[in-house]
Amino acid sequence: MDEILEILEENARISIEDLARLVKKSKREVEEAIKKYEKKGIIAKYKTIINKGRLKEETPVVALIEVRVTPQKDVGFDNIAQRIYRFSEVKSCYLLSGTYDLLLVVEGKDIQTVARFVSEKLAPLSSVKGTTTHFMLKKYKEDGVIFVKEEKNKRLTITY
Length: 160
What we know:
Structural class: alpha+beta
Radius of gyration: 21 Å
CATH superfamily of the largest domain: Lrp/AsnC effector binding domain/regulation of amino acid metabolism (RAM) domain
Shape: extended
CATH topology of the largest domain: Alpha-Beta Plaits
Largest sheet: 4 strands, antiparallel
Oligomer: single chain
Strand order of the largest sheet: 2-3-1-4
Helix content: 25-40%
Distance between the termini: 54 Å
Number of helices: 5
Strand content: 15-25%
């Protein structure tokens, strides 16, 4: 992967000047490269990772949903995946190998909202053969960012 992309992936807020200095290119070359990546869809979005567990207000319920589907003739999984990922509750959608075909990351205000999504929107789709829902209980790490403080070992040393 291009060095500019690697640096932006780690820190999207880096200034063009600092980025140019790190990759030993002119500011203009870096700006042109970034515009090219954005135009081609290589850079799809700039994102802030928020540790929602530290917010005082209620945080959304997140579920990972494994979905088995029947692929459609001549289009495979793409059409059903597109129909599913267009639901506003679906934050991410991945095609998998193995027992399940799709993995969804779904958010709702509570468990009942996610359950209604599965029972009223997802399961009734004719191509959906089955689902398994896993509710996220605690997030330890996301996109390389560790959310929990690592505690020092509190055990006493045993000496003889």
